[in-house]
Specification:
The protein is of the alpha/beta class and 198 residues long. It has eight helices and six strands, in the order E-H-H-E-E-H-E-H-E-H-E-H-H-H.
Length: 198
């Protein structure tokens, strides 16, 4: 809004929201004892993905942990599962339900700062606790108090992933709190008025 307001004063910010009808309720969590940690996105995140390598490498070598990549395949040397990009939102939503932890990286830039936090919400609706970068798009999470984990550097991300691997029940509890936040405060039924006002 700050950037576009320099050009035109009639600017509205309409937050992204989720429609509960698009998602299956109560997705499974660690049902087989495996903690699945992953990323989902497009190649537009090529620079962001580089920040994941250290933490995902460590995670891939832990007992009962799997690393998943949805979309881009960075061809890392450590074990991970890759799921091809799909243009079907329904297929994407079904696929990411395997995740227990969704890492949402965005490196700051003039362009990236104007992105949204939709990936964190999609992760929550799929059943995964979000781990977000401490950057502007995810400010509702790390700054404004929505339930999540956050990181400011690659080292912080590794520390957070280690914590979640060691504290799986805490990850589940945080997901439940995040689910409550998304399904109430970020539900399209409660936020559609922002769009109507615009």
């Amino acid at each position: 809004a700050g950037i576009y307001s320099r050009i035109h004063k009639n600017v509205h910010v309409c937050r992204n929201a989720v429609d509960l009808d698009d998602w299956e309720p109560d997705p499974p969590h660690q049902s087989d004892g495996i903690l699945r940690i992953g990323f989902a996105g497009s190649w537009s995140h090529i620079h962001d993905i580089r920040d994941l390598q250290r933490a995902f490498d460590w995670a891939s070598r832990q007992k009962d942990v799997e690393v998943w990549m949805f979309g881009p395949d960075p061809e890392w040397k450590f074990p991970y599962r890759h799921v091809q990009w799909t243009s079907s939102l329904a297929a994407y939503r079904r696929a990411v339900q395997v995740l227990d932890v969704m890492v949402c990286p965005i490196r700051p830039s003039e362009w990236a700062n104007c992105k949204s936090d939709i990936k964190a919400m999609e992760g929550v609706m799929a059943g995964a606790v979000p781990v977000v970068s401490q950057t502007e798009p995810f400010a509702p999470w790390w700054r404004d108090g929505a339930p999540c984990y956050s990181y400011g550097s690659e080292k912080d991300l590794l520390k957070t992933i280690k914590h979640l691997v060691a504290n799986r029940e805490e990850a589940s509890r945080t997901w439940k709190a995040a689910y409550e936040y998304v399904t109430t405060e970020r539900n399209i039924r409660s936020t559609v008025s922002e769009w109507r006002d615009a």
